[in-house]
Amino acid sequence: GAGVSQSPSNKVTEKGKDVELRCDPISGHTALYWYRQSLGQGLEFLIYFQGNSAPDKSGLPSDRFSAERTGGSVSTLTIQRTQQEDSAVYLCASSSLAGGGEQFFGPGTRLTVL
Amino acid sequence: GNSVTQMEGPVTLSEEAFLTINCTYTATGYPSLFWYVQYPGEGLQLLLKATKADDKGSNKGFEATYRKETTSFHLEKGSVQVSDSAVYFCARTNAGGTSYGKLTFGQGTILTVHP
After folding, report:
1. Is the pLDDT of residue B72 over 90?
2. Interface mutation vs chain B, best among A94, A95, A103, most B CBs within 10 Å
3. Which of A62, A100, B23, B115 is an S-S bond match for B6, by CB 3.0 to 4.6 Å?
């Protein structure tokens, strides 16, 4: 597709369960970012992948959160043992240096932890 | 630290009114600055940007000037329309001269424009 896609668009889970959120960046974009948008915290950076470099994980809120990017393309954000405070919209963005680095955002995954 | 502070909303205006949404930042070095917009039911999209001091970003009638001396990047529009109703986010990266790198966002300002 032409833009960043994310799946699922909505996810409802029970407290304590694990969830996986997927991001398909724009083809050819070397950088991929995860952010979280919640009522209490606004928009927060979570993690950043750039090419083959080690990811910048400085925004991950706890060790229950992890992410990987396979083959320099698709990324999966995993939240283990979900808590109610994990409820938020998880946004993915991608960018290319050749494109000036502008970040293009996906529609997000709305996660609700009951 | 590196942060972004923008004026609290919500902001409610009549159509054709003048809009200002203030944004200030703290930074070590020279960041790149952005305004993002989120229309109802839509994803976040870049509205405008400035990557070095004194640059003016502009798009869709909106403007913002990178003011290093006041560490500000205020968003302005001379005549708002109902279709401008959205949430506006000021943001920065750490790297000047480019849009690359993780974004730090302000808290967002809800704008509602009435006919």
Report:
1. yes
2. A103
3. B23
